[in-house]
Amino acid sequence: METSLHRQLKSYYAPNADCEEITLGAYRIDAIDGDRLIEIQHGSLGAIRDKVKCLLEEYDVHVVKPIAVRKYLIKRQKKDGKTLSARFSPRRGSVFDLFDDLVHFTNVFPHPRLTLEVALTIQEEHRTARKPRRWKGKDYRVQDRVLRSVEEQIEFKTAADLLDLIPGKLPSPFHTKDLATAAGVQRWLAQKMAYCLRNTGAIELVGKEKNALLYEIADENQAAA
């Protein structure tokens, strides 16, 4: 079921209501702005991978990945019922969360006709209570997500654009611990970053140090820096 967040972002990016939900051949496009197709993807980028790859054969495509930098959590006993609690989640998202999903999209990005945008947002997450499962499980169900604001928009067209996210200068060679320190993220996410940067051609594998893989920035990205 479409969320309020998805509807709001379509309106945010489309020039007008007539440019939303357009049928193009076998596909339904979220919005069209001139000759550019716009796809809003809150879920996995892997879910639209084949669709985008097909559309890129003929069109310029702009994929928007919304990431919640803050979430306001509203919990009710039932939908439209009395509010049980309302608070901001202590977890804060960042643009680096993109890499957790980009691992499923590196066979599409980069592409000359593709722009990938991260929309950093503040969202409301509306939840309803439910009985916890016998094993691990959440005690709530997400009913809707609502856009409060778009805080920042960051576009990526090339592998070098991904590399530009990393502040400071990495050692040469470097491993994922160095990447985690430079970006201020956990090691597991740095490993996904390294996977994406390697698969998009931004960095190259140059060896190993004990169990750690060693990387260097690819020559063309060194020249661009």
UniProtKB/TrEMBL annotation:
InterPro entries: DUF8091
Pfam families per the UniProt record, alphabetical: DUF8091
Domain annotation DUF8091: ranges: 3-157
Domain of life where this protein originates: Bacteria
Protein's name according to its UniProt entry: DUF8091 domain-containing protein
Organism: Gimesia aquarii
